[in-house]
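Below is how a single chain appears once it has passed through the pipeline. First comes the sequence as given, then the structure the pipeline wrote out for it. We keep one example in the README because the format questions we get most often are answered faster by looking than by reading.
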Amino acid sequence: MFFLVTGTDTDKARAKARELISLMEKKRPDATSIRVLADTATMSMVDELVLSQGLFEAKTITFFDEVFENEDVGARVIAVVDALKLSQNGFVLFEEKLSKKNLEILSGSAEKVFHFDSTEPSSDYSMFPIADAFGSCDKRSLWLLIREALDHGSPAEEIHGIMWWQVKAIAIVRIAKDAKSAGLAPFVFTKAKRFSMAFSSEQIEKIMCDLVAIYHKAHRGEIDFNVALERFALDFPVSHVEK
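Resulting structure:
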């Protein structure tokens, strides 16, 4: 039994991993639980846990904890993924981030995949240029930046989140007297105030409705989140204010 847990929301992802391990321990009270870390893992350890037919067979529950940080060990896990899938032992593999290729391989073998992403902008990749292109009504840059973020591996939730944050700020500054009453930092307030000049109230309301619809339809499985964000950008007018 093999479960895959991934995502940048590490608190939720690790909580799910612990839950899965606990459930397996209840089903297999005689099994030995083992946690394998990248800095202590070896390729032979992977082989012993996954391939051995003697001491370890049907007696272990293994938590592979971000072992793909060790490239050799990660490669070995991929190499024995078929055996991992068929093993009678229990395995939970957690990785915050995986390459697209490795994610596809592991997902194809896992009994179930759990993915948890943070809605906050990633610390290693700035979402704010997307917000600026959005506020500036720069349709071409908006689409290119969304495409770049997706190629970088940024979750659709993050991209959607930064656009929602920007349009909400634009809506707030139209009725707020100052940064304090708007609940925004002075710099953010000033920039949003400038951006708001390009939008009418009706257009802001429509954009917000469109973003809400995209989010809920994507999470209901009615549309592809990534594709919907790109279409949103491609349909984004150069200016929302009628001349």
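The radius of gyration is 23 Å.

See the next section for the split statistics.
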